[in-house]
């Protein structure tokens, strides 16, 4: 396999993964980012823990989709992750709940 063929394969695989993400994202309530992976989940629990002077995060997720190009199946019943770095958890808002405020009328510039 040539370098160009390998690059094309990786690009196509990344695009397929992104398209899958767009298709399944509405099925999940949370977006979770760790230093190693990106997840979609319907239940998330993050527990800060200490070991000596070190702080780490114990993350448990249920009903999960894993952003990983090398997995055959990205849907997982539960995931348990330990992270020494930050863990970002976002609750997705429903589109119906999202309201964009009206912009005030500004006088035209003089």
TrEMBL record:
Q: From which domain of life does this come?
A: Bacteria
Any single Pfam family the record assigns to this protein: DUF2469
InterPro entries cross-referenced by the UniProt entry: DUF2469
Q: What is this protein called?
A: DUF2469 family protein
């Amino acid at each position: 396999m040539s370098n160009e063929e390998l690059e094309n394969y990786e690009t196509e695989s990344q695009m397929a993964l992104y398209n899958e993400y767009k298709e399944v994202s509405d099925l999940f309530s949370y977006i979770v980012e760790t230093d190693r992976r990106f997840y979609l989940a319907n239940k998330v629990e993050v527990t800060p823990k200490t070991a000596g002077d070190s702080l780490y995060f114990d993350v448990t997720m249920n009903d999960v989709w894993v952003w990983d190009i090398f997995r055959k199946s990205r849907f997982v019943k539960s995931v348990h992750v330990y992270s020494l770095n930050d863990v970002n958890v976002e609750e997705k808002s429903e589109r119906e709940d999202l309201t964009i405020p009206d912009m005030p009328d500004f006088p035209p510039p003089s």
